């Protein structure tokens, strides 16, 4: 069950966010946890992080947007399809979500599953 893998600290964090950011973060959280029963939710580095056999993805909130980030995002470019993975770091990439309409559940689920599978290969 998804509820069994939810962190109280993440719940409190989301509840303290402005309403529009809270809605986007909660929706993304649900997509992430529904994408794979293997993912574990943790509150690290002042944001929700999701791991399986290492770090997989995270949710980083800002005043006007939420980033759905991938710790090994540079390895996901080809699987991103029409999604725009941003970032110029060595490995991390993110998708910037500015409104609820930017959330693409099927595409995000597919990308999250691909990110989990990267950690299965290790």
UniProtKB/TrEMBL annotation:
Q: Which residues form the YdhG-like domain?
A: 23-116
InterPro entries for this protein: YdhG-like
Q: What is this protein called?
A: DUF1801 domain-containing protein
According to its UniProt entry, this protein's organism is Virgibacillus sediminis
């Amino acid at each position: 069950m998804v509820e069994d893998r939810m962190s109280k600290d993440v719940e409190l964090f989301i509840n303290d966010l402005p309403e529009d950011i809270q809605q986007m973060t909660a929706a993304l959280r649900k997509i992430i946890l529904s994408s794979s029963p293997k993912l574990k939710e943790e509150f690290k580095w002042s944001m929700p992080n999701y791991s399986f056999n290492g770090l997989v993805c995270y949710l980083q909130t800002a005043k006007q947007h939420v980033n759905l980030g991938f710790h090994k995002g540079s390895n996901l470019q080809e699987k991103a399809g029409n999604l725009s993975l941003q970032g110029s770091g060595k490995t991390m990439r993110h998708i910037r979500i500015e409104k609820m309409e930017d959330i693409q559940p099927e595409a995000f689920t597919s990308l999250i599953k691909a990110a989990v599978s990267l950690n299965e290969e290790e």
